[in-house]
Every structure is written in structure tokens, then in C-alpha cells.
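S2.1 Query sequence (Exopolysaccharide transport protein family protein)
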Amino acid sequence: MLDHYIELIRHFWRTILLGALVAGGLSLAMSLVLLRAMPLYEASVVMNMQPSEEELRFNRGFLGVSQFNPATIIAQTHIERLLSRQVAGRAIDILTEGSGGALAPAPRTFLREVKSALWRWYNILNFGYFEPQPERQTAISDLIGATEVEIVEGSYILQVSVSLDDADLAARAANALARAYIEETRDEFQADAARVDASLDREIAAREADLAARQAERQQTARDFGVANIDRERAIMLDTRAAARASLEDIEVELALLDTTLASLRGSIAGASDAETVRGLRQTLASTEASRAAIEERLRLGGESLARTDAALRDLDTAQDALAEIDQRIAAVAADLLELRNRRVGARVAREAELSQVRTIQSASPPVYPKSPKVLVNTIVGTILGGILVLVPVIAMDVLGDRIRTSEDLRGSLGARVLPPITRRLLRHARRYNDGGGTPSRLLRRYADAVGRRFVSDGAHRWPSGELFVTAFGSPAEIAALREVMTAVLRIAAPRAQDGAAPEVVDLPPVSRIADWSAQADRHVVIGLRPGTVDRDELGVMGDDAGAVPPGAPVSYAALLP
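Output C-alpha cells follow.
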């Protein structure tokens, strides 16, 4: 099969080469025109999308769950936002500001006019009318159409490329688009952060008001119980109660001593006989009893004081329980307030860090060479495509048509009675050998050996005995070319007669002029034909692919001519 297509290409090589050269020439001309009129320069800026905490949590939760890469999903979200009209509009505003308040209009060229006309008629034919866009909207659409974003797989690095016909404008547009996206991202983040800050400020203000109310309630409760410092007052009261109890114990000892003294005085008075002595003892007894009464009063007053101290301590415990409950509520509110304040501080710190979430790693610079057209590449590709486009109908004709174009086609009709194709080089070698003799070339000898194998093995199983007849589907010149080759073949490989002479090659008229083949019955006839000039049904006179020869027909062979 490969040999079939090689022969087919060899036959149509001029047509294929012409198609390739025409396509290559058109590609070259078009590339030169575009290079002169509309070169396309590409400027690229590299950006890093630092993931936020929420995005990292999404990565950890999504990783391993699906076949998709979560980093790619997040980066694609950035790409869609970067290519939005809002970001492109902001980039146009930046370019306009950098150009002094107005963008310079693109120069009107013939190609731009043709492009505009095609776009206008495309809309008219599709929708019935054409609505021209404002200049700013047109600039936004052009910028989006000229922008390509590529992502480094598995990372958050984006390469933003802008292709325009002005190298400096392409670089400025790429940098403006990156700056616009950074500013847009920061503005959105600051707006979200402002809403979060406002919510936190409201919560903090509510907690501060609640804390102030709890503290005022505690102060009022302390005033109601008449305490200022529970611990200090408790310590004072405990010291006072201890001192009162010690004083009472001392008084009780004094009373016990007085009771002993009184009992002794009473015994002495009862036993005394002297009136003067009795009088003195009675005075002492009265004085002692008066002292005892005073000590008893002191004991009573000390007991009352101790009871008041115990009551004050019990009141202090009640106040402490009430204040402790209020202190718990104050501590809870204070803890909530501290958490909210820490959250606000953390939000501000995170905001400062995430404001640089989208950063420019490498800014765009004006390219030196245009991205397209690439004249050499386009010419090579156009040449290859032109050859392929010509080859496709050639193969289609070969598959769908019924003409004989290759040796494979001949074998499909005649089986093994097909000689190797004759090339121009082989014809030159045969003429040189026939004219000058000498040693045949290797190419000519290989061809002679192949023809001999066909005669001996695949055809009549013998060489022609005396004469080999040649004819062709064509002109006498083609018969003459076939005669030259067959003469050389017989001289090289055919068995010699007894006189040493090789079989002779005899010309027949062209096939179209032979009405009766029976005159050539059982003879060797080689029929030549040029590729693509004979249909399969015209070969019926030569037999079929099984080797069957019609009655009265010659043993015929076929060979393709150059």
C-alpha cells in the first residue's frame, strides 16, 4: 500500500509541487503585507495571586475529593474577573489618564477599513441592522479581545498578555490591566472590610454600653449595702470580733475573780466579831459588788457589740454574693468585648496583609519583535498545507476513480502479470546501454532480473522464444520508449538462441488500432500505459487478476510508463 501512494505522489508530483508553491507564495505575500500594515506585538505581565485564608481552607477541603485541581479553580476565578468589562474599563481609564486625557485614535488603514466593513455587514446580515458602539466601549471590547491569560498549572501565577499593533501601547495596556485588577481587588476588599469593621464597631459599642451598665449596677449595689471594699471591711470586722471575744473572755475571768473575792468577804463578815472589822469588810464588799456590777455591764455591752459584728459579717456575706453575681456578668461582657477588640485588630492586620494579595511579579516591557506574522513559519506552514490540500483530491480521485495510476492498480486487474514501473532514469540507462553497450548499470540489471522473474515464475513460465512484442495505450513515442527498455532487458537477462542472438523486440501498433488480438496468440506482448490514462475495463483484453487469458489472446504483460 505504501508503494502505491509513493507511485501516486511520483505521478502527481508536479501538481503537488505547484499547489505547495502557490500556497507558500500566497502565505509569504500575505505575511509580508500583514507585517508591513498590521504587525501584532505581544507584551506580558506576570502576576501572583496570593491565596487568602478562606481560599487555603477551600484547597484543603477540596483536595483529594475531586479530579480537579482547586488551585486551578481559584485561579480561573481570578482570570474571569480579570477579563471582565469592569476591570477593562478601569484599565482604559488608566491608559487615558496616562495619555493626557484622551487615547490617540488608531490610524485608519485599508486593512482596518476592510475589517470594519466586514464586521458591519456581518451584523447587518445576521441581525438586520448595525449599531455602532461608543468609543470607550469599543476600546474595552478591543482590549478584552486582545488579552490572553495563561496559568502555571497547580500555582497561583498568571501571565497576562496583550497583543496590539503598537509595541509601546501593548506594554502600557498590559501594565494598565494588571494595575486595574489590583486596584479593583483592593477596592472590593476594602469595601468588604469596611462593612466588617462597621459591624464590629457596632458590636463593640453595644458591649461597652453593657459593661458600663453592669459596672454602674455594681456601684449602686455596693452603695445599697454600704460597702466599699468587702475584703478590707471583712478583715476589719474579723479583727474587731476577735478583739471583742478576747475582751469578753478577760471580763469573764475578772467576774470569776470578783465572785471568789465576794464569797471570801461574805465568809469573813460572817465569821468576824469585831464591829469595826465587820464595818470595813462590808464597805469592801459593797465596793467589790459595785465593781462586779460594772464588769457585768461591760460584759453585756461586749456581747452586744459582738452580736452586731456577727450581724455585720452576715450582711457582708450577702453583699458579697450579690456583688459576685454582678462581677460574673461584668467578666462575661468584658471577655466578649476583649474578643471583639482582638478580632478588629486581627482584621486590620489581615487587611494590611491581604491588600497585597494580588501583586505584580514582572511588569511588561515593549517587545522588540512582533508576535505575528512570522513570515518564515507562515510560509513553511502554507507550503505544507498547500501540498496537503492538493494531495487530498488526488487521493480522493484514486479511491473513487476507476483509472489505472499505480502498479497496485494494475495488479488489481492483472494479478502477477505486471512488470515493475519504468522511470525516466531507467529509460535513460536503457538508451545509454543500447547505444554504447558496455556494462549495464545496477538499476537496469535489477529491473531486468525482476522482469525475468515475472516471465518465468508469474506469467507464461518461459522467456519469449524469438520475439517480444510491445505496444502501448498511447502514441508511437511511448511504444518506442517501451521498446528501448525491453531491448535492454532481453540483452541482459534473456536466454540466448543457438546462434547467440537475443530475442528481438517488435513494435505493434497502438492498442487503439489493434482490432484482432488472435494474431498474437501465445506470444509475449508487453503493453505500456501512462498513469491515469486508462480505465480498468479497457484492460479486459489482457485477462483478469487470476491470470486467465481470453481464448485466442496473447500472454500479455503491463508496465507503467514515465
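Residues 544-549 have pLDDT under 50 and may be disordered. The first strand starts at residue 41 and ends at 49.
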